[in-house]
Amino acid sequence: MACCCPHSLSAGRFFSRFARSYRRRFKKKGFEPAQRQLLEGIERVGFTDATVLEIGSGVGYLHQRLLQRGAASAVGIDLAPKMIEEAEALAREQGLAERTRYRVGDFVEQADTFDAADVVILDKVICCYPDAERIVATSLAKARRVYAYTIPRNRWYTRLGVALTALVLGLFRSDFRPYVHDPEKIDAWVTATGFTKCYENLTPIWLSCAYTRG
């Protein structure tokens, strides 16, 4: 089932344009600093033999790296069809096709059709949703043991950058907008469900956090 929200449809079209370049960039340069931090946080809380759900999975290299390091299986969902095409191709190249499954669409709209996973990941995804509380709540409901995300830091320069990006997108008549949501509110929503923060790290732009239940 594909997404029907204009914002999500526009986001899918927007990110599909960059799918091939994302994959090429990763092959050339590897993980971005914030992604390395996110992986470090997930490794710290543990993922051996875990099932993984990555929301906004992009071309798949985050969860595929976890599979290479001991996770059991992974499901990825992304708004951008081209991202999923690249993720499937990358999984085949690495011999991971039998341990991965992919979907195109808006996770919030499809959440009821997903099984719970040991590890749930949202790398630069919450900032793509206008309703942060809804995406956090629906994704938390699928996390058995580990919940990890990367979001923009709430700083004047990130807010300015997001505002300028939104202006440009509006000029191109796109319904997609990025957001800088309050990190303290997100942390409160997560910990209210019984998770404890076990990892936090920063780049100048991004904040990465990992939580474990119990």
From TrEMBL:
Residues 52-134 form the Methyltransferase domain. InterPro entries: Methyltransf_25 (IPR041698), SAM-dependent_MTases_sf (IPR029063). It holds the Pfam family Methyltransf_25. It comes from the Bacteria. SUPFAM superfamilies: S-adenosyl-L-methionine-dependent methyltransferases. This is Methyltransferase domain-containing protein. It comes from Candidatus Muproteobacteria bacterium RBG_16_60_9.
